[in-house]
From TrEMBL:
<protein>
    <submittedName>
        <fullName>Lrrc34 protein, putative</fullName>
    </submittedName>
</protein>
<keyword id="KW-0677">Repeat</keyword>
<dbReference type="InterPro" id="IPR032675">
    <property type="entry name" value="LRR_dom_sf"/>
</dbReference>
<dbReference type="InterPro" id="IPR052201">
    <property type="entry name" value="LRR-containing_regulator"/>
</dbReference>
C-alpha cells in the first residue's frame, strides 16, 4: 500500500506494505530524511549510510514499519526496543514500555548530556522524527531543558504525534540561568497541537507577563488536560494580576492539580476561587493556609464534596493556628480519602485536633504525617488512640514521632479492624530511630 501525506505543504509518498524490499525501504526512507525532516542528512549518500548502519542490526522493512498498536495488539516496537535504544542513546534518549502496550520517550542521561547539548549525532534525531510521526503508541514524553537546538529537530515531529497523553518538561533553572520567553514560546507552539494531552508537568518555570500569556494560551488549547503539575522557580513581582487570573481560570477543568511555590495571600484566594468543581486531587504548600490564618482554606475544605486527596507541605507557617483551622474544616468534610501532611512538626493540641477530626471520619483511608527533624519529637499518642477507634483508615504513616507512643500504637493495631498498613518512624533524641512497618493483621 502507498499512502500520501502533506508535510509542511510538500506531498510525501511513503510505502508501508509488508513486502517492501530493502532497496525500496532505503529509497523511501532517504526521501523521508531529506524532505525537510532531518536537515543534517542533506545528501543521498548520508541517508544511504545512515540506513546501511541500521540495516546492520535490523531488518529495515520491519524496523521502519508504521505503528501496529490496536485494541488487541501491541506495537511491533516492543520487540525491537534494544535496537532502537542503541541509536536513540546518541541523542541521550530512551524508549521504554511504561505500561502494557504503552511506550515512553525520556532522557537517558542528564539534561546537559542529552537534548540540551549543542551537538548530537543526527542518526538519533532521524529516528525520533520517525517515531513521533509514525507511532501513536508513544503516549509519554519527558524533556529536560528543551532549548532552541532540540526544538528545531523535534518541533515538527512532535506536532504530528497523535497519541501523546503525558508530557513532562524539566527546565534547568538557577539564579544564573533563567528560562527565557523564547524557550517557552518554542515548546508552547508545539504543545497547543496535542489536543489529546491529559497530563502536563512543568518544573523550573519563571512566570512573567509574557510567560503567563503563553501558559494561558497553551492550557486553553488542551481540552483533554485533566492533570497539571507546576513547580515555579519564581513569579515576577510585576506579573499582572489579571494575567494570573487568566492562567488560574484555565485550571477549572482539572481533576488533579499540584503547585509548588509560595504564593502571596491575594493569589491564593484567587486560585482557590478559580478551581473547578471536579478537582479530586490537590497538592500545595502551606502558603495556601496563610490567608486569614487558614480560615479561607478551611472554608474551601469544609464545603468540598469532590476532593479525594489533599497534600500539604510545610514551607512558611511556623505556628499551629493555620493547621488548627484546616483540621476544623476536616471535621465537617465527609468525602476526603487521603490526607498527606509533609514537614509539619505538630504540637500536642494540634495533634489532638487532627485525631479528633479523623476518628469519626468515615471516608478517610490513608493518613500520612511526617516531619524531617529528628531532634523534634511529636507525641503520636492521640493518633494511636484515634487508630484504635477509627473504622475507615486502611493505611497510616507516622514519621518522627517519639518512641514513647510505640505501645499505644501496638494496642491500637489490636483494636482496629480496617488497617492494612502501618508505618512508624519513632525516635528518641538520645537514641537511634526505631522504625516499624506492619502490613495487615
Amino acid at each position: 500500500m502507498i499512502h500520501t501525506e502533506l508535510f509542511s505543504g510538500v506531498k510525501v509518498v511513503v510505502r508501508t506494505e509488508k513486502s517492501m524490499t530493502v532497496s525500496q525501504c532505503r529509497w523511501e526512507l532517504r526521501r523521508f530524511a531529506t524532505r525537510n525532516r532531518c536537515p543534517e542528512i542533506s545528501t543521498a549518500k548520508e541517508a544511504y549510510s545512515f540506513l546501511s548502519t541500521i540495516g546492520a542490526y535490523a531488518d529495515l522493512p520491519r524496523f521502519f514499519k508504521p505503528c501496529t498498536k490496536s485494541d488487541g495488539e501491541s506495537c511491533h516496537l516492543l520487540d525491537q526496543l534494544d535496537i532502537w535504544n542503541q541509536f536513540l542513546q546518541e541523542v541521550g534518549m530512551l524508549l521504554e514500555e511504561v505500561a502494557p502496550g504503552t511506550l515512553s520517550v525520556a532522557p537517558q542521561r542528564r539534561a546537559s548530556d542529552s537534548l540540551a547539548a549543542e551537538y548530537c549525532n543526527p542518526d538519533g534525531w532521524v529516528l525520533l522524527h520517525w517515531l513521533f510521526k509514525e507511532h501513536h503508541c508513544i503516549a509519554n514524553l519527558r524533556l529536560l531543558s528543551p532549548n532552541k537546538h532540540s526544538q528545531l529537530h523535534l518541533g515538527d515531529a512532535l506536532s504530528q504525534n497523535s497519541g501523546l497523553k503525558t508530557l513532562t518538561l524539566s527546565y534547568e533553572t538557577s539564579e544564573d540561568r533563567l528560562v527565557t520567553v523564547e524557550e517557552i514560546r518554542m515548546i508552547s507552539s508545539t504543545v497547543r497541537r496535542w489536543t489529546k494531552l491529559e497530563s502536563l508537568s512543568i518544573s523550573g518555570l519563571v512566570l512573567s507577563n509574557d510567560v503567563a500569556v503563553l501558559l494561558e494560551a497553551s492550557l486553553e488549547k488542551l481540552p483533554s488536560l485533566r492533570s497539571l503539575e507546576v513547580s515555579f522557580f519564581s513569579i515576577a513581582p510585576a506579573c499582572d494580576a489579571e494575567l494570573l487570573k487568566g492562567v488560574f481560570k484555565r485550571m477549572s477543568a482539572l481533576t488533579s492539580l499540584s503547585l509548588s511555590y509560595t504564593f502571596e495571600p491575594p493569589d491564593v484566594e484567587l486560585l482557590l476561587h478559580c478551581l473547578g468543581p471536579g478537582l479530586s486531587k490537590l497538592s500545595v504548600d502551606d502558603s495556601f493556609l496563610v490567608p486569614q490564618e487558614g480560615a479561607v482554606f478551611q472554608k474551601f475544605l469544609s464545603g468540598n464534596t469532590v476532593l479525594k486527596k489533599l497534600t500539604l507541605t510545610q514551607k512558611v507557617c511556623t505556628g499551629m493556628g493555620e493547621l488548627d483551622n484546616v483540621f476544623k474544616g476536616l471535621l465537617v468534610n465527609h468525602s476526603l480519602e487521603e490526607l498527606h501532611l509533609s514537614g509539619f512538626g505538630l504540637e500536642n493540641p494540634t495533634m489532638e485536633l487532627l485525631a479528633e477530626a479523623v476518628v469519626e471520619h468515615s471516608t478517610l483511608k490513608i493518613l500520612e504525617v511526617n516531619f524531617f527533624d529528628e531532634c523534634w519529637e511529636m507525641d503520636g499518642t492521640p493518633l494511636a488512640k484515634m487508630l484504635g477507634q477509627n473504622k475507615s483508615i486502611q493505611e497510616l504513616k507516622f514519621e518522627v514521632g517519639e518512641v514513647a507512643c510505640y505501645d499505644a500504637f501496638a494496642e491500637a493495631v489490636r483494636k482496629n479492624t480496617t488497617l492494612k498498613k502501618l508505618s512508624l518512624n519513632l525516635v528518641h533524641i538520645l537514641h537511634l530511630p526505631r522504625r516499624l512497618c506492619l502490613f495487615g493483621h
